[in-house]
Write a structure and sequence with these properties.
By secondary structure, the chain is of the alpha+beta class. It contains 8 helices and 12 strands. The longest helix has 18 residues.
Length: about 290
């Protein structure tokens, strides 16, 4: 059997199966970042993401945006846990023939994002490789009371999403601002039961929440915010790399949130969490998980 017969998620499951973790690990493989024992009132958050030339970006789009993206995707994962990013290490695979200007631009992109989000760049590794590969690992922290996992969705929760979805390949996937401020506002002021960032696509990522929480959901199709770059509803819920936040919270809290939302970033209530994981189809204007 080959890797392509298995798919990404089953492969990770297979790799994770025999990994046992110690009591220092509060939550290991299976969320946006690992949650690790730290101080009396805080956890460490630890996450890593890799970008490969040809798969995630083309060399022709320049180094700057790729650099920005390589750090921003990790910030997005820390944000989805309710935390703040602190320290990053950067590993680089570069073809020896690559123009120095490319790497300079790449690091300018990384530095600009690091400055904006007050992240210290503290190391990494550099090797020669056939294609440009960039891996960033990011360490952050979160107050214990503000930690949000994928697994906390409750029956009756309202489901919210930030921004507009779909068509990110037209540009947003390389040039986005991770929703860190929004996430911190949410966890500091509201009771957020579950959260994830949209990297694989709304339906896929919402289903990660539902699976971890052993719940189902009803999505109001008309309420899903479709980006002007998306082809249609299908593309909005399936395209990946939006790097928006999807989260669930008690409905009464949700009503307060809508009144108090201080950001320009769009906020949409797109559905509710149901008890049953059973898939139901047919109702017009609704999608059930
Ligand atoms: P995200 O899209 O939020 O970055 P992924 O779908 O990449 O998350 O990964 C899902 C989970 O699997 C995460 O907890 C991640 O740390 C873990 N994971 C991914 N690849 C590996 C691997 N090769 N070995 C161990 N854990 C992995
Ligand atoms: Mg994620």
């Amino acid at each position: 059997m080959r890797i392509k017969d298995l798919g990404e998620f089953s492969l990770i499951k297979r790799l994770a199966k025999d990994i046992k973790s110690s009591a220092r690990v509060i939550a290991g493989i299976g969320d946006d970042a690992a949650v690790l024992r730290h101080t009396r009132d805080k956890y460490l958050l630890f996450t890593s993401d890799m970008l490969v030339e040809g798969k995630h970006f083309r060399k022709t789009s320049g180094g700057y945006l790729v650099g920005k993206k390589s750090l921003s995707v990790n910030i997005s994962d820390i944000a989805a846990m309710g935390g703040v990013p602190m320290f990053a290490v950067i590993s680089l695979g570069v073809p020896p023939s690559l123009d120095l200007k490319y790497v300079d631009a790449l690091y300018k992109g990384i530095r600009d994002v690091a400055r904006r989000f007050r992240i210290d760049l503290v190391g990494g590794d550099t090797v020669a490789s056939e294609k440009i590969v960039i891996n960033v690992s990011l360490l952050g922290e979160v107050e214990k009371k503000n930690l949000v996992l994928r697994s906390g969705a409750k029956q009756g929760d309202a489901i919210f999403v930030t921004g507009a979805l779909g068509g990110s390949l037209k540009g947003k996937h390389l040039d986005f601002i991770p929703r860190l401020e929004e996430a911190r506002f949410l966890v500091k002021n509201f009771n957020i039961n579950s959260m994830i960032d949209v990297s694989d696509g709304l339906f896929s990522d919402l289903d990660h929440i539902l699976k971890s929480s052993r719940k189902g959901a009803l999505v109001y199709e008309k309420a899903v915010p479709i980006s002007k770059h998306a082809k249609d509803f299908k593309s909005a819920v399936r395209d990946g790399e939006d790097f928006e936040l999807v989260f669930t919270m008690p409905r009464a809290e949700g009503r307060k949130l809508v009144k108090k939302w201080p950001f320009k970033t769009r906020l949409s209530e797109i559905g509710k969490v149901c008890k049953d994981r059973r898939k139901i189809t047919g109702a017009r204007g609704y999608t059930h998980f």
